[in-house]
Amino acid sequence: MCEQQNLYGATTVLIEDKASGTQLIQELIADGCHGVTRYQPDCEKIMRLHAQTAMIENGFVSIPQSAAWLAEYLHEMTVFPNGKHDDQVDSTAQFLDWFKKPFPGQGIFEYYRRLAEEAEQRRKPQPAQTVWQPGSMQWLAEQNKSK
User: Residue 1 to residues 15, 48, 92: CA-CA distances in angstroms?
Assistant: First the structure.
């Protein structure tokens, strides 16, 4: 699993903290696999996926147009819960659930994101403001607007 993490540059490895997952988490941590994150499911598989359907249907989930694993993945997703396998469905639902939840330190990321947006807005040239000659018709109209 550490090899897969390194191959894809993953900073987080999400593992369900139940049954064999608990032992796997302990082994990975002992082997020095960093970024292991425990996932605690709060309902059964069907309900976990059902909770993510809006995110999927509204286009917030993107999958590649072609991949060696795509046909098998789509088959498993479409026949769930009546298919022979459901591991990919379950891991997809778990990830989407985990991804939507606030995480420790998220506030600081949001703070810096907003600062970056404000800095970007300041970098954009502001429209020039027209200054009218005092006493002109335009100046008088502006004065009347501000009253």
Answer: 11, 24, 17
The whole-angstrom separation of Cα 112 and Cα 43 is: 34
CB atoms within 10 A of CB 84: 7
Instruction: Report CA dihedral (16, 17, 20, 23) to the nearest 10 degrees.
Output: 130
Please report which confidence band the pLDDT of residue 100 belongs to, taking 50, 70 and 90 as the band edges: confident
β-bridge pairing 36-39 and 13-16: parallel
Query: Domain range for residue 25?
Result: 1-40
Q: Is 131 contained in some domain?
A: no
Number of structural domains the chain divides into: 2
Distance CA 12, CA 39 (A): 11
Q: What is the pTM of this model?
A: 0.64
